[in-house]
Amino acid sequence: MKKIINFFKECYSELKKVVWPTRESVMENTKIVIISIAVVAVFLFCVDFLSSKLVADVLAGEWLTGGM
């Protein structure tokens, strides 16, 4: 039982050392993450769209005739 009590005391003392981020810092980092996700989503959409068009053209045989 003493080990459990000591564990929680150590947890509490470690939590007092934590430096929590400010609201402004959290908001700024959140904006960066949202913008990064949007950029990656657009990039992946473009890659997916172009690769699906390429595969469709190859399967349709249009790549041999140049799309004519």
What pattern of helices and strands is seen along the backbone? HHH
Tell me the number of structural domains. Answer: 1
Task: Give the total of beta strands.
Answer: 0
Class by alpha and beta content = mainly alpha
Poorly predicted ranges (pLDDT <50, ≥5 residues)?
none
- What is the tally of helical segments? 3
Largest sheet: none
Rounded radius of gyration (Å): 27 Å
Distance between the termini: 81 Å
Question: Helicity range of the residues?
Answer: over 70%
Shape: elongated
Determine the mean pLDDT.
91
Q: What amount of the residues lies in strands?
A: under 5%
Concise structural overview:
The chain is mainly alpha-helical. The chain has three helices and no strands.
Layout of strands and helices, then pairs:
Blueprint: H1 2-15, H2 23-60, H3 62-65
What does this structure look like?
With 68 residues, this protein is an all-alpha fold. It has one domain (20-68). Helices cover 82% and strands 0% of the residues. The chain is built from 3 helices and no strands. It has helices at 2-15, 23-60, 62-65. The chain is elongated and about 80 Å long. It starts with a helix and ends with a helix.
